[in-house]
Amino acid sequence: MSYGRTFTEWRAQAPDWDAYTRHPFVQGMADGSLPRDAFLNYLVQDYLFLIHFARAWALAVVKAGDLDEMRACSAVVHTLIDHEMALHVETCAAAGIDTNAMLATPEALTNIAYTRYVLDAGLSGDFLDLLAALMPCVLGYGEIGSRLAAEAAPDTPYRDWIDTYAGPEYQAACHSAGELLDRAIAKRLGNAPQSSPRWATLGDRFATATRLEVGFWGLGRA
Ligand SMILES: Cc1ncc(CO)c(N)n1
After folding, report:
1. How remote is the CA of residue 46 from the centroid of ligand 1, in Å?
2. Burial code of 157-187, b = ≥16 C-beta within 10 A, e = fewer?
3. First CA to last CA distance, the chain
4. Which residues line ligand 1 (CB under 6 A)?
5. Is this prediction's ipTM beyond 0.90?
6. Best CA proximity match to 84, nearest among 165, 201, 21
7. Is 90 exposed, middle or buried (0-12, 13-18, 19+ CB in 10 A)?
8. Degrees (nearest 5) of the Cα angle 48, 106, 162?
């Protein structure tokens, strides 16, 4: 799985990457053993997550350095709001949970911690700080989606979830996010970004967001 060279390097250096992408919750979706209530708890929290996460990508439009960067970030806002969130709305509606009930659900602390960490990365830092905090989310789910599309049990009840993240729209968003990251890095740090003093800090941000993803799966408890 490759979404660009910067991602490939940061991913290799994030100690919790496998704990995130191969979490028991993920394996439970793959083999179908994840309890439905656990999944729905997670999905309601994830709906609230995506609202703030879309705000963070919108902040990336504000922090972008040129029109191409603005266009790429606003495309992600669109994918999140008009495509990805439809999965949450439709799956929860089928379980009798409407959007008002979702919006009235208190945000879990690990949920607040994650989205506000990302927003703070953008508010207190620059475009690269923000992208580093945004990438584990987008690209991790892209990686999980394509792996599960290949490995999941044919009769898993989590097929809609898998199809959303393995599907062409989400995968295209991942590829353009990976390219955006590579271009943004080259534009600001040059062709040997590893020798920039910022490289380690950015990798740390990526690793912290990865750690917050591991915590997020913990919200999926029945
Ligand atoms: C917690 C979390 N991370 C990543 C994604 C993918 O957008 C998501 N929906 N939720």
Report:
1. 7
2. ebbebbebbbeeebbebbebbbebbbbbbee
3. 31
4. 46, 49-50, 84, 137-138, 141, 213, 216
5. yes
6. 165
7. exposed
8. 35
Domain ranges, ordered by start, for the chain: 5-217
C-alpha distances in Å from residue 12, one per residue of 4, 7, 9, 23, 206:
13, 8, 5, 17, 11
- The structure tokens listed for 206 are 């990526």
Protein residue whose Cα sits closest to atom 5 of ligand 1: 137
Cβ neighbours of residue 76 closer than 8 Å, sequence gap 6 or more: 57, 60, 138, 173, 176, 177
The verdict on domain 5-217 having CATH code 1.20.1250.20 is no
**What is the chain's pLDDT, residue by residue, as a tens digit (222 residues)?**
589 999 999 999 999 999 999 999 999 999 999 999 999 999 999 999 999 999 999 999 999 999 999 999 999 999 999 999 999 999 999 999 999 999 999 999 999 999 999 999 999 999 999 999 999 999 999 999 999 999 999 999 999 999 999 999 999 999 999 999 999 999 999 999 999 999 999 999 999 999 999 999 999 876
Catalytic site positions: 137, 213
Judge whether 70 and 180 are in contact, CB under 8 Å.
Answer: no
Residue with the smallest CA separation from ligand 1 atom 2 is 137
